Amino acid sequence: LPMAFRDVNARRHIGLQQLSSLALPGRTLLGPMKSCKFVVDESTNQSTLICSAVRLIESLDLTSAAGQLLNETIQAQNKEFKTGMSTLLFLVGAWSNAVLECLQQNVPVSAIVSVMSEGLTSCCERVQCLQISIHDINKELCSSSVRPNAFKSKTCQTGCESFLNPQILLYFQKDISASEEVIPINSCSHQDDDCNFNNCLVSPVPGFGSTASLVKPVGDKSTSVTSGSGVIASSCNKQKLTHSRYFSTLGEGHFSSQQSNFQGYLSEQSADPCECYGLGHLAMTLSHGNQTSMKLLQTIVAYQQERAECSGSSQFNIAEIVTCCLLGLPESYSCVSPGFVTLVSPEQATVIKYFEDKSLRILLMDGDLTEQYRHLGFNRPCNVRTILEHPSLQEGKAGGLWLSSMLDILVSFEVNLVLVKGNVCENLMERCIANGILVIGSVAQDVLRAFGEVTSAQPVTYLTQLNASCVGSGAQVELWKASDDRAVDLGELLPVKIEARGIPLLTAVLTTTVSSKMQLIEDQFWTSVYRLHHALNDDKVFLGGGAVELLCLSHIQMLAEQPLQPANKNTVKESHNPWLVASATECKSVVLQALASGWKQYLSVVMYNTAKAASELEACTLVDHHLKKAADCGSPSAYILKELRRSDLLSGGSGPFANHGDGLKVYDNVTAKTEAWRRALDLVLLVLQTDAEIITGPKKNPLLNSHVSSDFMFL
């Protein structure tokens, strides 16, 4: 072996080992049945419940360069997709270990980089056959004899209809023949209090879109219900419906009767029958077992679809969704409320009591409402130097003048409500409260834009820019109330609802009594929202349940068995490393198997986490079993598609796939998944090459020459 190559393997690759160690705690976060972790802050002794790779990495001590690169990679994935971070973290650890094993087998660094990169590119191309367009999903759902069950039975509706106010569900399919009788949602029996999500899963919106009808022949006294999705037996206590990417039972607890006062916006049926199930069904298939977030998202989807039919706007607009976290209320109070729900102080709440049922003049500010604030790009005067002999006295005097001036401006324009994007001066807020002006800070840009569109208010950067045309009208403010019309008093902060006629904003009110769980609930909700958002942007999804990873494994095995085909016939003669070219075939096989080990471990850990295997070893055996059958079939993709249709095998949990016993499939995002793969491998290879350069030096290592990569072209 070349001396430089011996030096690479003689020393330890610290960066790769650090990546492996940092990724190890994330193994339990993989799959739908995640094991949450408590992270304790030693300085404050406060604990936080985490269940995502993003929160885990934020909680770890990342002083090393490899750790900081890992954090930046995961944060980039989270910023762009809000999903796929756990997969990324796991593959970083798995592929780091695989690369270390390759180095132990004396595989050159350049071979690892070239073959792994080409292998991943080949896999991404191969799995395109497992993509399905959104249109095909709706079409398949409409033509299928088994559709998502809108409701189980009348007794099942007790614990499930509560995600919406009963007023929402007053209307059903209007084209009902005279021989059919409509069964109102709120006519269900409330005698069975145990009918919860462990016994049945009920969509909060019939048909997940515009609405399907619940009908039965006149005179039929049975308790079974015929919905737009088929006939459902009445004994819901004997039925369980799993909605997980792999395998999971539904979470316990039911949702009590509390929700926002939507008006009956589900009164019309979509002209396209496929839209009756469209986005709501897609949200379910992408939920990966997160039932609470799925129900909230389906409520939002139903509202936005109905609004889109009337206005012609987008059927799903993520910019019209905001969240409000209420700590102190049971999780059963989580709901979707129209308008903008936020938290204010008790002092601000006293002003709101005078505003109820009144039309308010509203002002929008797209910066901070402080004396020191200057917009981005502001240039201070040059060659000016200010000297203050008594800074405290001068600042206090100047500050008082600024406060009085700003308050006079608000009063002169009769402004009642001010929404500020940034921070608000506390002294100014106190003076505004005393003068009956409500000022709310830290308001998202999308919220300001929404209020600007419906109130004709124009955002300003400074109050001195204010004129009559900038002030809008028609806003309304009231204390947010629970389903029983009781105002919620959480002590330090109170929830309020701000809305205006025609505003498209929807607030997902997320509640819990456990402070350490609040961040977890919000993260899970946004993950569900962005999965649907990216699926619609891609206009396609992957078949889920491990099908994509299994096809990658099968494809890598096929590539590993193929002999090396150099891009140039004179490669051996022209290469500066004859030894490297002579062993290229063997190196290629070793590296490809290392690449495949990442996906194999991925499937094994997910199956173990979801209790589909008693151990990771047993799960690995099950994966090997499917790989062998796929190879014997001759067409791995055809085998996988066939297995996905076999509900008996898939629901039995004997393979890496998962499916719903009622015919519902599970899906994954396309771009988010493949980008997580690429980011994970790019990080591992970057750290590998950096370690090699640190050990041998960039000029002393002959194995990092760019011309070597052509020797490993196998595609």
UniProtKB/TrEMBL annotation:
GO terms, biological process: chaperone-mediated protein complex assembly; photoreceptor cell maintenance
Pfam families documented for this protein: Cpn60_TCP1
InterPro entries: BBS12, Cpn60/GroEL/TCP-1, GroEL-like_apical_dom_sf, GROEL-like_equatorial_sf, TCP-1-like_intermed_sf
GO molecular function: ATP binding
SUPFAM superfamilies: GroEL apical domain-like, GroEL equatorial domain-like
Residues that span the membrane, as ranges: none
Stated name of the protein: Bardet-Biedl syndrome 12 protein
